[in-house]
Amino acid sequence: MKNTIDYSDDYSVSYRAQLTAAISESKKLGFNRPLFISERLAVADETLAATAKFLNQFSGFLDTVVPGYWGNSCQTLSTNIFAQLNGRGIAADIVLGNVIINGTDEFDTTLKILQNEYFAEDDLIGHQQVHAWVTLGDDTIVDAALPPRLAKHYNAPGHFNDMIFINRAATLSSRFKVRYQPILVGTEFFAKTNPPDPMDLLKSIQSLRY
Fold first, then answer.
1. Which of 102, 160, 189, 190 gives 147 a disulfide partner, CB atoms 3.0 to 4.6 angstroms apart?
2. Which pLDDT band holds residue 129 (cuts at 50, 70, 90)?
3. Assigned domain for 1 exists
4. Is residue 2 in some structural domain?
5. How many CA atoms lie within 13 A of 173 on its CB side?
6. What is the Cα–Cα distance from 77 to 71, expressed in whole angstroms?
């Protein structure tokens, strides 16, 4: 029997607490790169609006990076969004975690699973058991991979295939019954478990501008 979820609550409160815990767990794993974002600083609506304006223009490029269905390409999409936003002065970081969709555990991952994968000595085989999205800090979520999954597997309208979530945790929870659960934060996870390193793309973008 599924636990009943009260979608009228302010899920942003829980999300912020989970993000703070995820940053702490990342440091315990040895993630030592300085974060671009802060879990303590509020992110203004104007910053979200600027992010949405840019990504609306950038989505055409993402189509060339990931042609067709985006729902299985969270690493590539989050890496590109992370690098492009920071390259334009919008602070962003990559979050690794899970998503609960209308009570369904979509990716079935845990901190222990991610710890084991991070310290594994064998090369990765198959898909990683994790979802990745981008945060600007605070309760913000930027995700290009999940909306198409909602269209394919959860009967969301077809325009979700062309949507990028750029919103706050509470809004995504109440409007779409989607609850993001941060577990780790930082570029080190993909750099070690499934290169390329997102920082390499950011440095490449920065080198073209300066």
1. 160
2. confident
3. no
4. no
5. 22
6. 10
Alpha-carbon distance of 30 to 9, in angstroms, equals 34
Helix, strand, coil percentages in the chain from 3-state DSSP, rounded to 5 = 50, 15, 35
As a whole number of angstroms, the distance between CA 121 and CA 116 comes to 10
The range of the structural domain enclosing residue 61 comes to 11-209
User: Tokens in use for 103?
Assistant: 């009570």
User: Which one-letter DSSP state was computed for residue 29?
Assistant: H
Contact 86, 134 (CB under 8 A): no
- 3-state SS assignment for residue 182: strand
Residue 3 lies in a domain: no
Per residue in 147-178, pLDDT (tens digit) is 999 999 999 999 999 999 999 999 999 999 99
SS3 readout for 124-156: CCCCCCCEEEEECCCCEEEECCHHHHHHHHCCC
Are 70 and 145 a contacting pair, CB within 8 Å?
yes
What total number of domains does the chain contain?
1
Give pLDDT, residue 13.
97
Instruction: Count CB-CB contacts under 10 A for residue 134.
Output: 32
Whether 141 is in a domain gets the answer yes
- What span, in angstroms and rounded, lies between the C-alpha atoms of 149 and 57? 22
